[in-house]
Design a protein that fits this description.
The protein has helices at residues 3-6, 30-40, 54-64, 92-96, 112-119, 133-136, 183-186, 199-211, 214-230, 241-252, 257-269, 273-286, and strands at 44-47, 81-85, 97-102, 105-110, 121-126, 148-151, 156-159, 164-170, 190-193. The protein is α/β, with parallel strands linked by helices and 288 residues long. The strands form three sheets. A five-stranded parallel β-sheet has the order 2-5-8-1-9, with helices on both faces. A two-stranded antiparallel sheet has the order 3-4. A two-stranded antiparallel sheet has the order 6-7. The structure holds adenosine-5'-diphosphate.
C-alpha cells in the first residue's frame, strides 16, 4: 500500500504538490543558494520588499527540486509546497492541528505545518513577523539540529521527514523597527536577500505576466526604476513588481496608460497627496 493511499486526501500532502513549472526569472544567485540550503536542509529566510518575487521563487524552487524521499510516492516533478500567510490571529493550533468532531467521535486533523513535517515538503511561512510571538516559538525545535515538531495536545513529538524544509519570508521594511524578527528566531535561518529586479529583467517579467507588448513593458519598467529613485528619503515602499504588473494588466484590458498607472501605482502606493503628486509627475513624463 502506498503512503498516499494510506493517508486520507484531506490530510495528506499530495494536493500541495507543484505540478506545473512556475514562471520565474532568476535575479542573482538565489537558485544556487537555495539548492545548497536544500541539500543541507538549512532553514531559509527570504528577505526583501513586498511584491518582489519571493513567493514566486519558492513556488519555482518547489517545482524544481527533485523529491528525494519516499520511493512509494508517485513520481512527480516537484516537492509539495505548503504556504501559510502569517497574521496576528494565526495560532499555534492553526499551524499544528486540532481535534475535530466527526461521525466517529473526535478526530485529530493535522494542521498545514504538521502535514509538511510528517510527509515532507517545503513549508513557507509568508510574512513571518506578522505572526504572534507564541506562534513563532513552535518552529524553534524544527529549525535546529533536532528537526522536531512537538504536538502538545497529543503528547506527541514528530521528527521531520527528510524532505521537510522550512522557509520564511520577511520584509525588513522601511523605517520600521516595530515589527522586527527576534534575534533568537532569525539566527536559525540562512538569509537570501531579494530586491526589485534590474530594469531589463523587470521588463521581461512585466511583458510575460501582464501580457503587454515590449514597448509598454519597457515603459513600465522604466517607471518603476524612476519612482524608486525618486524616493531618496525612503518614505515610500515600492512600487513593487506586482504593482507594475497590475498597471500592465489594466492596460492590456484597454485602460489608458496614465489612468492604469494612477490606479495601480500612485493610489496604491500612498495616501499622501504630496507623495502621490511626485509619483504622478513621473507617470506623466513616462507616458506622455
Ligand atoms: P512577494 O512574495 O515578494 O511579495 P511575489 O512573489 O508574489 O512577491 O511577486 C509578485 C509578482 O511579481 C509575482 O506574482 C510575479 O508575477 C512577479 N515576479 C516578481 N519577480 C519575478 C521573477 N523574478 N520572475 C517571475 N515573476 C516575478
Amino acid at each position: 500500500m502506498t503512503l498516499a493511499a494510506a493517508v486520507p486526501k484531506s490530510q495528506g500532502i499530495e494536493e500541495y504538490r507543484v505540478v506545473e513549472e512556475p514562471f520565474y526569472l532568476p535575479v542573482g544567485d538565489e537558485v544556487t543558494l537555495f539548492e545548497a540550503a536544500w541539500r543541507e536542509r538549512i532553514p531559509v529566510l527570504l528577505k526583501g520588499p513586498t511584491g518582489c518575487g519571493k513567493t514566486r521563487f519558492v513556488e519555482y524552487m518547489s517545482w524544481k527540486l527533485a523529491r528525494s524521499g519516499d520511493p512509494a510516492l508517485p513520481q512527480a516533478p516537484g516537492l509539495p509546497l505548503v504556504t501559510i500567510s502569517c497574521h496576528e490571529d494565526l495560532t499555534a493550533t492553526d499551524l499544528v492541528g486540532r481535534y475535530l468532531l466527526s461521525g466517529r467521535g473526535t478526530e485529530w486533523v493535522d494542521g498545514p505545518l504538521t502535514r509538511a513535517v510528517r510527509y515532507g515538503g517545503i513549508c513557507y511561512l509568508d510574512e513571518v513577523v506578522e505572526a504572534r510571538k507564541d506562534t513563532i516559538v513552535i518552529i524553534h525545535s524544527l529549525t535546529d539540529h533536532r528537526r522536531l515538531l512537538p504536538i502538545e495536545k497529543r503528547a506527541e513529538v514528530i521528527p521531520a521527514h527528510s524532505d521537510f524544509l522550512l522557509v520564511v519570508s520577511y520584509n525588513p521594511g522601511y523605517q520600521s523597527t516595530v515589527k522586527d524578527l527576534k534575534h533568537s528566531t532569525r539566527q536559525r535561518f540562512m538569509a537570501i536577500e531579494f530586491n526589485y529586479p534590474s530594469q531589463a529583467l523587470e521588463m521581461r517579467i512585466i511583458e510575460r505576466e501582464a501580457g503587454v507588448d515590449p514597448e509598454r513593458a519597457a515603459a513600465l519598467a522604466l517607471l518603476g526604476y524612476q519612482i524608486r529613485n525618486l524616493d531618496q528619503q525612503n518614505l515610500l515602499e515600492g512600487p513593487s513588481t506586482r504593482l507594475l504588473i497590475y498597471a500592465g494588466r489594466l492596460m492590456a484590458q484597454g485602460v489608458a496608460p496614465r489612468l492604469a498607472c494612477e490606479t495601480a501605482i500612485a493610489q496604491a502606493m500612498t495616501d499622501d497627496t504630496l507623495l502621490a503628486d511626485g509619483v504622478r509627475q513621473v507617470i506623466d513624463a513616462v507616458f506622455r
